[in-house]
Fold Carbohydrate sulfotransferase.
Amino acid sequence: YQWQHTKETRLSKFNQTEIEAMLGSYTKVLFVRDPFQRLIATFLQGMGSNPSFSSFVQDVLDSGTHNTSVAWKPLVSLCRPCLVQYDYVVMFGFQRQELGHLLQRAGLPVDSHLPKFTDTEVLWTYRWLSEQMFSELSVQQKKQLSRFYHWDLAAFPFSSSFLSD
């Protein structure tokens, strides 16, 4: 196929026939994380220039979905789960188990290829951080965030997300 020898990496640069051929020839894996946890991680990594989490969240909300950073943009706008049929969706917190399953399905040795994941070990930390940071937000900000991430919350099983309440 011609697309195998091109430098383009964005699907939008290809026509529908080429896109379908490419997507049909790969195993598609999507890694997802609770949107509120993504916001916290971005804030803690210093990507927000605000002194408080509440101010950072307000900047995210003010930016809207079209002019926002990939770090906190809604997942459905990045990965198009309604258009792309992913073979696997791996949730943060279950990476070791899920990737082991993927390697096994591919016929590869499981333990020799997997790095040490700490996602399951830090879930309790994120729960505590989520409680603390969620309490900093106004009722209006909480409602706006739930609307901002509405489609993510509908598309993926983030049942324990603070934004689903």
Remarks:
- The chain has one domain: 11-155.
- The CA atoms of residues 35 and 149 lie 7 Å apart.
- The first strand starts at residue 29 and ends at 32.
